[in-house]
Amino acid sequence: MLSGHFTKLYPPASVNLQLGVDFERDYGKATYSIDEFNAPLQQIKPDLIIVRLGENVADDDVQSRHFESQFQQLLDRLATYGQPVKIVITTSVWYRPQTDAVIRKVTAEKGHTLVDLSCMVGQGQYFASQYTNPGVAAHPNDSGMDRIAELIWAKIQ
């Protein structure tokens, strides 16, 4: 849905996906390097970056693993890779109070656009509850993904 909005508005637009799960799971560890984003940034040269992370950040680790400083470093890397870029950041669709508080704080400090997805937290109609596997059922279903896209689009159009 979101990709369709972009290509409708600007047909030559291309949309590229870069997973951030390594950052979410490994930030602050000696084995993790934020340099994982260097090559994609240089190859793609985006003028808009939508940062959708938080669900895979363990809320209990936010303080001990210094999520705030790590998230600041991530946003700095995205913002200074070589060309002007607009950065849009979302909160989580899961209950992640510490993670979301850091995302809100750092996003405001950096002057980026925030898309608050807290309206989706706990709203069953947006999640794949038809599946018995709790890990799968906790993820957004098609309606949830559409809602995320709508909320992002409302902030960037």
TrEMBL record:
A GO molecular-function annotation: hydrolase activity, acting on ester bonds
InterPro entries with a match to the protein in the record: SGNH_hydro_sf
Official protein name in the record: Uncharacterized protein
Organism: Spirosoma agri
Species classification: Bacteria, Pseudomonadati, Bacteroidota, Cytophagia, Cytophagales
